[in-house]
Amino acid sequence: MMVVRANPQSKPPLWLQLPQELTLRVTPEQFAILAAANRELRLERTATGELIVTPPTGSETGNRNLKLSYFLARWIEEEGGYGLAFDSSSGFELPNGANRSPDVSWVRQERWDALTPEQRKGFAPLCPDFVVELRSETDTFKELRAKMQEYLENGAQLGWLIDPKNKRVEIYRPGQAVEVLENPMVLSGEQVLPGFTLTLKRVWE
The whole model's pTM is what? Predict the structure, then answer.
């Protein structure tokens, strides 16, 4: 059930439960207001305006997300990775109009520098060059794979779909078939993030 809260200033909060089969569509402006008012939730919006509400992740998934963000940020700070890293709380407005928040993402410095100060403050109007989605217990492969394809269609150059439970990684590249790795030891940032490697043992733990 999706829960929407109404909070008139003069009355106690009211809660409205929406069945999963009921689609709630919002405009980009409405989405921005909702996201600002519900920072404790992870909100996304599809290209057709459908609102997606995701509750906070479990502790185990949250720890893995933190590790992934840390390793990418460390590569940038210590090894000169040319760009900016973002965690799952960062939202982007993709070229197709969707608002997405990858678990981990990276944007080339020159693309970030091309944005106006106002654009940087809100949902940056671009698709990250590199994206990671980390599968949790409540995620379905169908939804995650659709998101990965959407990232590619909107400009992503490399994507990792990491499934800790089965120790499997799906690698997404533009114009290529998805590569599936079973229990890999190390992932490479390839030509998109030259020199960046991720030791999967630290993620599986």
Answer: 0.84
